[in-house]
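Case study 2.
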Amino acid sequence: MALQQIDLNEDVLREILSHADIQSVFQLCQVNKMLCHQHDDLFRQIYQRLYCQTGMTVYKSEETTWFQLIKQCYLLEQLRITLPILNMYSIKKLYTLQVLNLSNNQLSALPPEMGQLSSLKILCLSHNQLSVLPPEMGQMHDLHCLNLSYNQLSALPPEMGQLSALQTLYMYNNQLNALPPEIGQLSDFQYLSLYNNKLSALPPEIGQLYALQKLDLSHNQLSALPPEMGQMRALQYLDLSYNQLSILPQEIGQLRALQYLNLSTNQLIALPPEIGQLRALQILYLNHNQLSALPSEMGQLSHLQILNLSYNQLSALPP
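Prediction:
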């Protein structure tokens, strides 16, 4: 018999809900709106029971109630997190889903129907076996955070440039050898992690990421940087360690918001005088390069707190 509008004490309510299936719980709460606010602890226990049964992962913020998480589980009812294959029927039932975690599975491909998750804000696909992404992912216009780390991706589809709301992208520990020019269309981008890939060059369009604050390109195969990187005026953190850089573009001096710069373990033989224009710089790593001299303009870095010059060929420091 379906659960209806009721007025029960907490003990009786707990007994009913502890044995009810997820759909009945959802229906009960739909007609008993106050339950969502009066019995948050009870719904926390129900959520934990459902989590143990399904192995599903959803995230709770300070603004969400445990009932809202149970509602997300209800929307996920047809999708078991441990399934290595996603089917069309499951995807179509997730049209209101905002957070989806499919990490630590054995996914080798994603269905085109992923693009139908139009409300999705956070998508975690790390620690899988993905080698390609469907172009339809570009339809996720509300996506804010995408985690693709620890996969086998060698390229990104141009449609990634359509993710207009994307702010954070984790792509570390993949096989990327190039970035699509369309990445420059991500105007809200704030954090990009690309360390431990196989990038040998960057597209000039990367300079169009005007809102980017943190960029990690360490452990790649970069031998040069595009001058357009100087346009990234919001950049505060830049890690270029463990690459093959022998020279820096003079435009690096335009990164006036930069506070952290790691150039260690490259092949730098000289620094441009414009590096002295990085007046906000606080941390600079230059160790394990081939520097024989430093520009006198480095004396203008008045906010510098940490400077590592070990394992170079310096004979003297500038006055």
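Confidence is low (pLDDT under 50) at residues 1-8, 53-60, 74-86.
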